[in-house]
Amino acid sequence: MKRSLAMVIEPHGITPQQYNVLRILRGAGPDGLPTLSIGERMIEQTPGVTRLVVRLERKGLVARTPCPKDLCCVFSAITEKGLDLLKELDDPVNRWDAQAVAVLPPSELDSLITLLDRVRASNY
């Protein structure tokens, strides 16, 4: 299943992990987030969050700014180019999401959502 999502995202020049970082930064707003916070919010935990962000910065999708109060802390924010890429991917990814759960009737989909909400709540 993860591979088929990658087939939607990768033709746009990013990996599923980079897509996840961009989605997190879009949700964070214009101020962005410190790298550590990005890592905490990722769907799939990865030790290389800084590398992911640096690659996105090289592509012009993310801007990084050192924190003036703590030189060890770097804030990352999504750029207009990054927002444009996500807008371009929103429909194809939403279609992929819908197709992934299309085998479930509405009542089972509601149950799945309820169960996933419970699992997510127990892990935070």
Taking Cα atoms only, what radius of gyration do you get, to the nearest Å? 16 Å
Beta-strand content: 5-15%
Distance between the termini: 25 Å
Order of SSEs: HHEHHEEHH
What is the share of helical residues?
Answer: 55-70%
**Shape summary:** globular
CATH architecture: Orthogonal Bundle
Largest sheet: 3 strands, antiparallel
Named CATH topology: Arc Repressor Mutant, subunit A
Strand order of the largest sheet: 1-3-2
Number of strands: 3
Tally of discrete structural domains: 1
CATH homolog superfamily? Winged helix-like DNA-binding domain superfamily/Winged helix DNA-binding domain
Number of helices: 6
Structure description:
With 124 residues, the chain is mainly alpha-helical. It has one domain: Arc Repressor Mutant, subunit A (Orthogonal Bundle). The chain is 61% helix and 10% strand. The protein is built from six helices and three strands. It has a three-stranded antiparallel sheet. β2 (62-66) and β3 (74-78) form a beta hairpin. α2 (16-28) crosses α4 (49-58). The longest helix is centred in the C-terminal third of the chain and has 21 residues, at 80-100. The chain is globular and about 50 Å long. 18% of the residues are buried. The model has no long low-confidence stretch (mean pLDDT 89).
